[in-house]
Amino acid sequence: FVAWVWPYLVLAWNTVVDVIFFAATILFLRDPNTLFRRGDSEVTLNPRRRFVHRSFSLDDVKFIKNAMNCTVNDVLVGATSAALSRYYFRNSGGTDTYRTWLRSVLLVNTRPTASLQAYANMIESGRSNDVAWGNQLGYILLPFHLAMHNDPLAYVRKAKMTVDRKKSSLEAIFTCKTSEVFVKMFGLKAGAFTFRRMFANTTISFSNLVGPTEKIELCGHPVVFIAPSVYGVPQALIVHYQSYNNTIKIVLSVDEEIFPNYSQLLDDFVESFGLIKDAASRLSESIKKE
Predict the structure, then answer these.
(1) Which domain CATH number covers 30?
(2) Number of domains in the chain
(3) Domain interval for residue 150
(4) Poorest-pLDDT segment among 106-110, 203-207, 256-260
(5) What is this structure's pTM?
(6) 37, 74, 165, 210: which could form a disulfide with 160 (CB 3.0–4.6 Å)?
(7) Which residues cross the membrane (predicted)?
């Protein structure tokens, strides 16, 4: 009986904790001031931004995934943590034993993917009024730990622990439903205010989107790559991962005042992926020898 009920108790506890932190973030809880965010009095919605991107091999990411027995998302979160750590410690002058953290806002579409075809069939049959249009977005506050590790794979292990913890929570569903009720009760302006507070009190936005697995065309023109990003949020750094065919594109949207050497930050992502891949190769070789 205990083994059956324990996962539900953990799910309930994690959800309560995450919801409390979510509410506290909107009300008063701010990330520590680091190189990655403006001071509280300097937050602006329209800074001068730069957009940079780089491509990675999806096969390399899957190789790391298989070597570490984790998911693609775990690898990307770990590589992001490694890159941010490299940039932070190089530019802040902090010691290798220093530890800090920052939080990202991760938007999650809570609409079941399996229901999309059912909605399409309803539209074709003329029952479009029964379809709930648009995405059903919830929010997850995903922490990134900044630290210097001798083993690059330590970032992926830490990321897997963090992501697994978030999977055992109904934070995204709860925040989605709460946001809908809040907007209906208090209006769009109140909803926009809470939305801005959430982004202003965190450090980065993070997303990982799955794209087409084969090359596509748009109006007869072949699509070479897909590199989405956004503008208008108060955070100084926005990280997007977008897969397409056999590549993954990383897109950074950066506040130019906070990241004057934004190209160096992008290079840190490339270097971190390379170090993690090399470490995963050594791990695979050692396992084969055993």
Answers:
(1) 3.30.559.30
(2) 1
(3) 2-289
(4) 106-110
(5) 0.87
(6) 74
(7) 6-29
